[in-house]
Design goal:
By secondary structure, the protein is α+β, with helices and mostly antiparallel strands. The protein has one domain. It contains 2 helices and 5 strands. A hairpin with a 2-residue loop joins strand 1 and strand 2.
Length: 96
């Protein structure tokens, strides 16, 4: 069976004792007890996502809706141009 390979950006974040893998390119996140488990779970969830949209015949619609670009033969996810910490100041009106 022919295979299609997609390269997508994935961020892995430590939350307490867990690790969360997330990609805005397909809007999927998974959690694991270890970094490796989060990666593995993300790979499985991503594979299911792509298999499902291919089986339904909605690959182009789903990926374009998520901001992907298409050339003649391939799809490309949105490009991550920055991944930084931002300082956000919020007025705490509860203590005003």
């Amino acid at each position: 069976m022919p295979q299609v390979e997609y390269m997508i950006p994935v961020s892995i974040i430590k939350e307490g004792d867990s690790f969360v893998a997330y990609s805005p390119a397909i809007d999927i996140s998974t959690v694991g007890d270890t970094f490796e488990e989060a990666q593995k779970m993300f790979g499985e969830a991503s594979q299911l996502f792509f298999e499902e949209i291919m089986e339904k015949g909605t690959t182009e619609e789903a990926l374009l809706e998520l901001g992907w670009q298409k050339n003649e033969e391939s799809f490309f996810p949105p490009t991550v141009v920055s991944h930084d910490l931002m300082s956000i100041l919020v007025a705490n009106r509860a203590y005003a």
